[in-house]
Task: structure prediction
Amino acid sequence: MTGALFGLTFAVAAPFWALMIVLPRWSWSARIVSSPLIVLPVVLIYAALIVPNFSTVLPAVASPTLAGIRDLLGTADGAAAAWAHMIAFDLFVGRWAWLDGRTRRMRALVMSPILLLTILLGPLGLLVYLLARTRWPLPASAVAGPARAVASDDGAGARRQHIG
Result:
C-alpha cells in the first residue's frame, strides 16, 4: 500500500501544477487554484501514511535528532510520508506564489520556471519567487483592497451604509 500511495502523491498534485504552468490564463485555472483545498488529496495521503505509524513518527519529530530522522526516513513508510509532506507544502507554496504573481501581474514566462523550480526544489523555488516578486510591486488597487459596504442600524430604525 505504501508504494501505491507514494505513486499517487504526485499524480493527484500534478493537475494543479499543470493549470498554473500550462494554462495560467484559463479562467478555470484561477477558479480551481484559488481554493486552498487543492492540497487536500495530498494531505489525505500523508494522513494515511502517518496515522498507522504515529507511535513511531511522533517521538522522532517531537524530539528530533539527526539519527532519529535518518532512521525514520530510511523506511518505506517514512520516505513516502516525507514525499507527501513535501508535495503538499510545495503545492501550497506554489499556489500562493501563483496567486500573488497574478495579483502583481507577473508574466507566465517568469512564473513558469519559478513554479517548475518549486516543484523540483521547493524552498529554492520559494527563494527565487521572493526575490523576483520585488520587481513587480502590488498594483494600487490590490494595496488598498476593495471597499466594503456594511449596513448598520442607527438605533432609530434607519439603515446606514458605512464604507470601510
Q: What stands out?
A: The longest strand covers residues 149-153.
